[in-house]
Structure formats: structure tokens, C-alpha cells
Design brief:
Elements (H helix, E strand, L loop, with lengths): L12 H8 L5 E3 L6 E4 L1 H25 L3 H21 L2 E2 L7
Helix pairs in contact: 2-3
The chain binds zinc ion (ZN).
């Protein structure tokens, strides 16, 4: 789980979920209210996991067609990706660029 780099507060799953849906790159720590940013390494990892999961669902859809199983698989993959993403987030005090 993400840990604030200013005060050391470990964010809960609910706090992380709520703050990760913000459109701004900065996420305020629920404890000290300082801006925290997701590290570039975390964003790269989440992009890889998201890409692989989309490819998995597309491959399943190609081989088995649009069945109810595809929607169930999509829901499961979405749930796993969200939980994995929230657990992989690392924070920093400054915004890091991807490249
Ligand atoms: Zn904090």
C-alpha cells in the first residue's frame, strides 16, 4: 500500500482508491494533507499490467467469442487489476516524468 513520503502514513485501500480517481497528478495525503505523486516506476508497472490484462481479455474474446464468460472474465480481470494497481502504488514528494 502507498506510504506518504512526508509523514510515513500508510494509506488504506479506500483512501488510495478514492484519491487515485482524481484527474490531478497530485494526491493529498489523508493524514498530513501534503501533495504526493505516484512514482514513474509505479505508473510504468500499472501500464504493463493494464496492457497485459486487456490483451488477455481480447485474446479470450477472439478465441471464444463474445460470451457471458467473456464479461465474467472482464469483471474478474478488472477487479484483479484494480487491487494489484492499488497495492503497487509508490509515492514520492515530487512529480516524476515517465521518460
Ligand atoms: Zn502524509
Amino acid at each position: 500500500m502507498p506510504v506518504c513520503q512526508t509523514c510515513g502514513h500508510t494509506w488504506s485501500l479506500g483512501e488510495t482508491l478514492k484519491r487515485s480517481f482524481s484527474i490531478w497528478p497530485a494526491m493529498k495525503c489523508p493524514n498530513c494533507e501534503r501533495d504526493q505523486f505516484i512514482t514513474a516506476k509505479s505508473r510504468k508497472r500499472s501500464a504493463i499490467v493494464s496492457g497485459l490484462s486487456i490483451a488477455l481479455v481480447m485474446l479470450f474474446n477472439i478465441f471464444f467469442g463474445p460470451t457471458a464468460y467473456t464479461f465474467v472474465l472482464f469483471g474478474l480481470v478488472l477487479l484483479v487489476v484494480m487491487i494489484t494497481y492499488l497495492r503497487m502504488i509508490k509515492l514520492s514528494n515530487t512529480e516524476e516524468h515517465m521518460f
